[in-house]
């Protein structure tokens, strides 16, 4: 399993300033084939500045979830550090 990209990212408006909610599409490589799955993720900033990332898969995936969620968290953290999120 390899995460190729996270695309079509849109931000949901919330009234809580330290919590950002996003929808998007994760493009994964499973069994050497690209597969697109819808995801929802939340980036919440703690009072000390640490960012907690929670990822939910909207579509069913035929792959163990723990490595997939960990990889998506890493990719989302990279996108956030680069300023690529809306």
Question: In words, what does this structure look like?
Answer:
The protein is α+β, with helices and mostly antiparallel strands. The protein has one domain (2-82). It contains one helix and four strands. It has one helix at residues 65-82, and strands at residues 2-12, 19-30, 33-45, 51-57. A four-stranded antiparallel sheet has the order 1-2-3-4, covered by helices on one side. It starts with a strand and ends with a helix. The model has no long low-confidence stretch (mean pLDDT 96).
Backbone shape: elongated
Count of discrete structural domains: 1
Adjacency order of strands in the biggest sheet: 1-2-3-4
> How much strand content do the residues show?
over 45%
Q: What Rg, in angstroms, do the CA atoms define?
A: 13 Å
Helical residues, percent: 10-25%
**SSE topology string:** EEEEH
As residue ranges, the low-confidence spans are none
**Main beta-sheet strand count, sense and barrel state:** 4 strands, antiparallel
Helix segment tally: 1
End-to-end span in angstroms? Answer: 27 Å
Kindly name the structural category: alpha+beta
Overall pLDDT confidence: 96
SS elements, strand count: 4
Key structural traits:
4-stranded antiparallel sheet; alpha+beta; 86 residues
């Amino acid at each position: 399993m390899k995460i190729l990209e996270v695309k079509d990212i849109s931000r949901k408006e919330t009234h809580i300033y330290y919590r950002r909610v996003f929808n998007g599409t994760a493009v994964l490589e499973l069994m050497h084939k690209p597969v697109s799955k819808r995801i929802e993720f939340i980036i919440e900033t703690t009072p000390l500045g640490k960012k907690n990332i929670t990822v939910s898969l909207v579509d069913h995936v035929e792959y163990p979830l723990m490595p997939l969620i960990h990889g998506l968290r890493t990719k989302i953290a990279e996108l956030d550090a680069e300023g690529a999120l809306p």
